Amino acid sequence: MKRPVRLEPGQKLVLTANRLLDGRTVWWCADGTWDLHIGRAALLDADEAEAVLARVVAEAQRDGVVGVYDTAVQAAVPPEPVTVREKIRAHGPTVHPEFAVETEQ
Amino acid sequence: MSIPVGHYQYDRIDRDFLQARIAEFEGQVQRRLDGTLSEDEFKPLRLMNGLYLQLHAYMLRVAIPYGILDSRQLRKLGEIARRYDRDYGHFTTRQNIQFNWIRLEDTPAILRELAEVDMHAIQTSGNCIRNVTADEYAGAAADELVDPRVHAEILRQWSTLHPEFTFLPRKFKIAISGSPNDRVAARFHDIGILARPGEDGAPVFRIFVGGGLGRTPVIGQELFDSVREEHLLATLEAILRVYNAHGRRDNIYKARIKILVQAIGVEAYREAVEAELAQMDLERYRLTPEAVAAIQSRFAVPQLEAPADADAVLAQQRRDDPLFDRWVRSNTHVHRDPGHIIATISLKPAGGIPGDATSAQIARLADLADAYSFGEIRITHLQNVVLGHVRKDRLRDLWMGLAEVGLAEANIGLIGDIVACPGLDYCALANARSIPIAQKLGARFADTALQAEIGALRINISGCINACGHHHAGHIGLLGVDKRGEEFFQLTVGGRAENGAAIGTILGAALPEDETVDAIARLVDCYLGRRESGETFLDTLTRLGHEPFREAAYETV
């Protein structure tokens, strides 16, 4: 059974995965698509995330993504992941600013 | 096609096998893309072909057997970096290269391109015998007793797709050297092999087992002192069989051979190996002189000819150019031929990313290898590049060529020659970033004159306890840890992988990332202030003990 998610005040959950074709980090959007930019990710409350996650995991092969999971973000605009790992996944390797996800279309 | 200097020349059987393997993997990729294979089913298949899924993309790890390439192969790696990656590659601590931005659907095409130059990515991952590493100065160094490359190639052929050892309890790493000066970290491998001439002139092999780094660092213990060449494969087969039968499969953290050797003791392990040998068909595994000669014949021998004044020319050039002289001091090693010299090319520019090279640099290295070292290149487990056979009177020309592409850093074996894993910038296992702290340290000690003044001092950085940056073996080691979402670094001192192998001692509590570089600078200042004439960092540490260094590291904390 999935462990219950504890969110601090001001935090929400987002769903993330890697794209099957190229492995790129993607974020789940409210319209059911996956996007490279975390700014377009759907923000979920803890009590709704589990059901959404189950649905999205079931559709992962059809959607061309791998390894779907949820992670906490500060619910700002754009949302910012809580952990260093997810910040790096969201924005790209810190040692190559020219590869920043924000500069990609 | 002429036979390459330095590594084995494939034959038709090798090439047919690679093509069949690529076709098999291409089918597996297709089945993954159309959903026939789930990710759980596909993962072990892609890992067997060196393909990982990391934080931002797939990563392909390409094998460089015993770290030796020819210029044609290196040029191909540069082309792959340019065409399929983001214009760079990363040389690893197992003498391999990794590409960090690979697309799954491109992978079969990349493997076909690699096969064009007799390369692949097989057994660069998974619970099998990984790429066998060897002395980066093999066949060139003046201090070498036995050239280990032919036996490294024999081990490569023996271990590739070995039917018994494809699903070991855990990954298995072998290193081999033929020098009395350990340059392969033999005591930190699952099996470390040191070759030397026997009484009859034929090589004999000293074999260590159960070494390793990672979560449980252990120094390997001697299993046999003098294994004869004819029994080398039988002995290794027996060692692996004992491990395969008794190694733990119930706990990934206790599955390496080092845990088994610790649990039963090296004497019991030796008895088990001898019992296995006693019931094996030794004739089947006998390594005959004819078999060794057949492999040897597929290595070309460099024709080492140099003008009589080559040494004098180099000496004059060093007197005339202090910057060149500094590079020669730190970045060269004595060759067995008096007219030649071994050049180590640093992939550690001040403030740069350890082990990274752009496609332009890779292409230039291939050109320089053709011009100056018989088209042969070696990758070191310390993430640098070696040209093994450079004529002394042409060394300065090589150095100037390297400078044109930013590869003339004079820091080999010095504090700027930092070993670092990819860390949390790329790696799905990491807890902290290794590269930024390496860049900060590199920038802090950028002055090569200061580095020369500090002398021999190795820094190794790992982004997690798996220790791909070999932090336990660093004179100063850094281990990245995650404390409530923040990056901290635990410092160790006194590790060494060379002769007299030792595991570093933890100095104290992990430091916040932004305090780590200053703490290391204070460690270095402590050493510089208290060293006696001729002492290295390790010498001073040994004489004084850890306490002054611990006090220095934590003085403002």
Automatic annotation (TrEMBL), chain A:
Cross-referenced InterPro entries: DUF2849
Domain of life: Bacteria
Pfam families: DUF2849
Organism: Gluconobacter aidae
Name of protein: DUF2849 domain-containing protein
From TrEMBL, chain B:
InterPro entries attached to this UniProt entry: NIR_SIR_4Fe-4S (IPR051329), NiRdtase/SiRdtase_haem-b_fer (IPR005117), Nit/Sulf_reduc_fer-like_dom_sf (IPR036136), NO2/SO3_Rdtase_4Fe4S_dom (IPR006067), NO2/SO3_Rdtase_4Fe4S_sf (IPR045854)
Highest taxon, organism lineage: Bacteria
Keyword terms of this UniProt record: 4Fe-4S, Heme, Iron, Iron-sulfur, Metal-binding, Oxidoreductase
Residues in coiled coil: none
Residue span, Nitrite/Sulfite reductase ferredoxin-like domain: 58-117, 353-404
Domain Nitrite/sulphite reductase 4Fe-4S: 125-278, 418-553
Stored Pfam families: NIR_SIR, NIR_SIR_ferr
Protein name: Nitrite/sulfite reductase
The keyword Heme appears for this protein: yes
Species of the source: Gluconobacter vitians
